[in-house]
Amino acid sequence: MTPAGEIHIELMHRAGRVDSVTIASTRPEAARVLVDKTPEQVLSMVPLLFSLCGNAQAYAALLACRAALGLAAEPVADAAREGLVQLEAVREHAWRILLDWPALLGQPADKAAMATLLKLDRQFKACLFVDGEAFSLDSRLLINVPGFNGLIAELTDLIDRAIFGGGLGRFLAITDAAQLLDFVAGNTGLAAQLLNALYQRDWLALGNSSVACLPELEYAELHQQMHNADLSAFCLAPQWQGRCYEATPLSRQQAQPLIAELQSRYGRGLLVRFVAVLLEVTAIPKHVAPPTRATVGGAGGVGLAQVQAARGLLIHRLALRQGRVYDYRIVAPTEWNFHPDGVLAQGLKALQATDADDLRRQAEWLIQAVDPCVAYRVTLHKQ
Predict the structure, then answer these.
(1) What SS3 state is found at 228?
(2) End-to-end CA, the chain
(3) Model pLDDT for residues 275-333, shown as the tens digit of each residue
(4) What residues are paired with 294 via a beta bridge?
């Protein structure tokens, strides 16, 4: 088990069919260490607690702290912060693509591209805030437009070369399933190789489930839900109005014509999930400061923030008493998507394979498509 915890997935199977799925998490409740801290201490600690989606976590913490303290919004600075969160989503998606997708195809990871990706990620903050301090109560803007635009161009070029084999422009022009198939057939980049493997194996609809995408959560209703509910239970295995939902890149890409057509043909299977991630990777660098997806509210020393992180909706809720935190809760996307009865569990139950090795292979592809943010183990038991 790693210090960050892990997800253990057990499949009971018989004759190539999955009879039952058990998903258990040993992820620690990291927010507990923030109790009895001042808001300033919280904001200095959060980036150290979360190595993945650190910008999204820090921004959610900042919004929640400001709401609990009754501080005014900072429209210009927050627009810059939202841009950093969006760019972090590109980094997170691209990192998983460069690291995990080659492994699915039996290829080595592109370590050179990954190193360049990390270098760019560190440089973006320095182009927007003094000393790169973006998520503190006293952050100061320092916008270097030429430098920032240069980094965007370098990031776009990296994505084009390392993921799309020089075919980024052609991928961006795709609007329907036929054009996607033509792209896959005529490109040798990593993205096309992975999609081509889905077509060749007839895994386009693999892992389809009926779990719906998480709707927009209104602040007042969410605040009431978290105030009345057993917060520990809600944070570890969240449901909304008694139902499981998924909070993934697919949730954000529902309105895309290509996604709508693919979903009508193959449901929420592997193809539509991988394409949704690719659409995010290609679209975000072109729209660095999109309309905010963050919502925030607070009253009586309580602050609640929702931020769209790379893997889905992230919620931070804190309560202050005499200037210190006496309760802090975080609901991460992984808790929605790896819920014991959630989208991954339902997708795994739909798998059918010729043998145990094939079943494990299918499960690995589906887990990567849903994308946990921590280590996981898959165990198969034959009935």
Answers:
(1) helix
(2) 27
(3) 999 999 998 665 554 334 455 656 678 999 999 999 999 999 999 999 999 999 999 99
(4) none
Map residue 339 onto helix, strand or coil: coil
pLDDT of residue 231: 67
Tokens 């993934």 label which residue?
248
The three-point CA angle 96-178-98 to 5° equals 10
Q: What is the DSSP string of 69-95?
A: HTPPP-HHHHHHHHHHHHHHHHHHHHH
* Distance in angstroms (rounded) separating the CA atoms of residues 340 and 21: 8
Asked if 136 and 59 count as a contact pair (C-beta separation under 8 A), the reply is: no
- pLDDT at residue 225, as a whole number: 80
Every domain of the chain and the residues it spans: 33-343
Beta bridge partners of 65: none
For the chain, give the percent of residues with pLDDT over 90: 78
**Inter-residue contact 319 to 201 (CB < 8 Å):** no
Give the separation between CA 27 and CA 9, rounded to whole angstroms. Answer: 13
CA 365 to chain centre: 16
Dist. CA 160–CA 170, nearest whole Å: 10
Instruction: Name the amino acid, one letter, at 295.
Output: T
Looking at residue 280, its amino acid is E
Q: Which positions ≥6 away from 129 have C-beta within 8 Å?
A: 77, 80, 139, 140, 141, 142
Q: What is the mean pLDDT of the chain?
A: 91
- Asked if residues 318 and 303 have their Cβ atoms less than 8 Å apart, the reply is yes
Q: Is 13 helix (H, G, I), strand (E, B) or coil?
A: strand
Alpha helices in the chain (DSSP H): 39-49, 54-69, 75-104, 111-126, 145-162, 168-172, 177-185, 190-201, 219-228, 231-236, 249-252, 257-266, 270-283, 333-337, 343-349, 356-370
**Could you give the CA distance from residue 370 to residue 166 in angstroms, rounded to a whole number?**
26
Tens digits of per-residue pLDDT, 42-72?
Answer: 999 999 998 889 999 999 999 999 999 999 8
Provide the residue type at 125 as one letter: K
In CATH, the architecture of 33-343 is Orthogonal Bundle (1.10)
Which residues make Cβ contacts (< 8 Å) with residue 125, sequence separation at least 6? 84, 132, 133, 134
